[in-house]
Design a protein that fits this description.
Strand order of the largest sheet: 1-4-7-10-13-16-19-22-25
Radius of gyration: 18 Å
Distance between the termini: 43 Å
Number of strands: 29
């Protein structure tokens, strides 16, 4: 506890990697949780990460906290604080690979932004998910803060939670999403989104991909229920405040 690990001046030569490994990465001893500044995980199964503080202490070197897999399964993040990173990612490096049974529990993603704008666009999300079959978010907070929202240009791809295509069995519950640059939750895959709180987002939830003409590219179902929507947000200087948006999706139920 209390140590700082994984500082990297050169993102290629000095990074913290775990290869071909399974087990638990945690902390011990008294005091604050240890700070890990960057972490890559590749080709792993049956991994739990808990009680760790992930934070990049060098703002000019902001990167992301990356979970990187190749046909991995049984990955759990529990009771972690992730802050001051560009994007945290759950997605396989190999586009043909699948991550199975991923759980993000009792954790916080804070201040997940860098310097994205029209001249230097970067994907900046609290959590980005792609090619995952079986994802559970439970008691998770992803919050950009109002001050950070005010610094954004008109940028449409930065969300608290961004779920891409080719994901299955997605459940998002008992969580809070706040002050997103665009969407609190943006999902291009079927999802059950329930018992969450959305605070001051330009768009709280958007389900379904937009601007596609191919009938094969769509969200086939969605269930959005028992969520609470409070406040509105801005994209650039434009106030926005939609609760649920549905686009190019079928069989979506919104209730309670």
């Amino acid at each position: 506890s209390g140590d700082v690990w994984g500082y990297w001046a050169d993102p290629v030569e000095e990074t913290a990697w775990y290869w071909d490994w399974e087990g638990t990465l945690s902390s011990y001893g008294e005091g604050p949780r240890p700070i890990v500044q960057w972490l890559g995980i590749y080709n792993v199964d049956n991994v739990t990460i808990e009680n760790i503080h992930f934070r990049n202490t060098e703002p000019e070197h902001r990167g992301g906290f990356w979970y990187m897999f190749n046909d991995a399964e049984n990955f759990t993040v529990r009771n972690c604080l992730i802050e001051e990173t560009t994007t945290s990612i759950v997605a396989p490096l190999n586009s043909d690979a699948i991550c199975r049974n991923v759980k993000i529990l009792d954790s916080q993603f804070l201040d997940c932004h860098g310097t994205s704008n029209e001249e230097t666009p970067l994907l900046e999300c609290g959590l980005f998910v792609d090619n995952v079959h079986g994802l559970l978010l439970d008691n998770v907070t992803i919050d950009y803060s109002q001050e950070i929202q005010d610094t954004y240009d008109e940028w449409w791809f930065d969300h608290c939670l961004y779920i891409q295509h080719d994901c299955l069995d997605i459940e998002i519950r008992n969580s809070t999403f706040g002050n997103a640059p665009c969407n609190g939750v943006k999902t291009n895959s079927p999802a059950w989104i329930h018992n969450n709180t959305f605070l001051n987002n330009p768009h709280a939830i958007h389900i379904g991909a937009a601007q596609y003409t191919d009938d094969d590219i769509r969200v086939e179902w969605g269930l959005i229920e028992n969520n609470t929507f409070i406040g509105v947000g801005r994209i650039a200087d434009m106030p926005r405040g939609s609760g649920v948006g549905i686009g190019w999706a079928a069989n979506v139920t919104v209730r309670n």
